[in-house]
Amino acid sequence: MIDIGINGAAGRMGRRLVALASEDEQLRVVTALERDGHELLGNDAGVVASVDAINTPLAAQVQNKPKVMIDFTVPEAFREALRVCRQQKIAMVIGTTGLTDDDYKAIDAAAEDIAILHAPNMSLGVNLLFALVGQVAERLGDDYDIEIVEAHHRFKLDAPSGTAMGLAEAICHATGKQIDKDFVHGRHGESTRKRGEVGMHALRIGDEVGRHSVHFGTLGEEITLAHKASTRDVFARGALRAAAWLADKPVGRYHMKDVLGL
Ligand SMILES: NC(=O)C1=CN([C@@H]2O[C@H](COP(=O)(O)OP(=O)(O)OC[C@H]3O[C@@H](n4cnc5c(N)ncnc54)[C@H](O)[C@@H]3O)[C@@H](O)[C@H]2O)C=CC1
Ligand SMILES: O=C(O)C1=N[C@H](C(=O)O)C[C@H](O)C1
């Protein structure tokens, strides 16, 4: 049995993580964290997630030390969780997006003391897409314009999505482009396309779980690589799989492609 913690346990992702972990014979949720002052603190995390009670109440501090903490919160809460996990030697799976360059440096530093994995998207399909867009971008070159489009629910805090940034990084890695020089976010007014430029566009609409597409177009043809998540369970299952995988790994920084064998 692997003891896990969920940070952000009453959130959209947190509830699905608790629910799916309760069906998994390998995993036990021993700590379920929420922000100080949250109205559901003290309630059983299973009941909050609309499954049977798991005898773990939502709490603002770690009560039973887990082997792996899964974090799906907001950047500020992630930073505090990283500090606590590093200090208490708890491995971490991080799904929170909207992180800064300094946050990534802090993850690298923590990897000296704990096993740690951050992925902006835990689904198999998107992680495969990361590899595919790099291959296509490299093969097609700058004769093909690239546009990244993402759509998410109206409650999403960050834009572009972490996944869209991951797609951008995959393109940069394969082509030598640079995010701060070669990418434009939306277009308005005088905005003639430059050769080699990559456009990024974010839609925020209703209850959209998550859609990403990368368009490669030239005069006469267009290729589109696209992914659509229709349920958050695809992310939650990936995060639980990553937690089980990470539990016995030595300290260091890991990636979803390591977990998925891509
Ligand atoms: N990597 C991936 O596959 C995915 C990543 N995400 C990311 O996960 C994050 C969370 O997404 P949602 O679950 O939709 O958001 P949400 O807003 O539904 O849930 C976040 C939860 O964190 C809690 N929280 C805030 N401060 C806290 C603190 N100090 N301590 C403990 N809990 C705290 C909130 O009260 C809330 O319940 C976002 O950054 C999102 O982009 C979402 C889906 C998939
Ligand atoms: O906030 C979300 O919901 C999602 N966030 C992640 C992101 O920013 O890419 C992953 C997924 O698309 C859902």
From TrEMBL:
Main location: cytoplasm
Protein location: Cytoplasm
Residues annotated as the enzyme's active site: H152, K156
Domain Dihydrodipicolinate reductase C-terminal: residue ranges: 125-260
InterPro entries in alphabetical order: DapB_C (IPR022663), DapB_N (IPR000846), DapB_N_CS (IPR022664), DHDPR_bac (IPR023940), NAD(P)-bd_dom_sf (IPR036291)
Keywords: Amino-acid biosynthesis, Cytoplasm, Diaminopimelate biosynthesis, Lysine biosynthesis, NAD, NADP, Oxidoreductase
Keyword Oxidoreductase attributed: yes
Pathway involvement of the protein, from the record: Amino-acid biosynthesis; L-lysine biosynthesis via DAP pathway; (S)-tetrahydrodipicolinate from L-aspartate: step 4/4
Pfam families: DapB_C, DapB_N
GO molecular function: 4-hydroxy-tetrahydrodipicolinate reductase
Reactions the enzyme catalyzes: (S)-2,3,4,5-tetrahydrodipicolinate + NADP(+) + H2O = (2S,4S)-4-hydroxy-2,3,4,5-tetrahydrodipicolinate + NADPH + H(+); (S)-2,3,4,5-tetrahydrodipicolinate + NAD(+) + H2O = (2S,4S)-4-hydroxy-2,3,4,5-tetrahydrodipicolinate + NADH + H(+)
EC identifiers of the protein: 1.17.1.8
Binding site for NAD(+): G8, A9, A10, G11, R12, M13, E34, G95, T96, T97, A119, P120, N121, M122
Superkingdom of the source species: Bacteria
Residue sites binding NADP(+) per the record: R35
Limits of the Dihydrodipicolinate reductase N-terminal domain: 2-122
Binding site for (S)-2,3,4,5-tetrahydrodipicolinate: H153, G162, T163
Subunit (UniProt): Homotetramer.
Role summary: Catalyzes the conversion of 4-hydroxy-tetrahydrodipicolinate (HTPA) to tetrahydrodipicolinate.
Family statement: Belongs to the DapB family.
Protein known as: 4-hydroxy-tetrahydrodipicolinate reductase
Organism annotation: Natronomicrosphaera hydrolytica
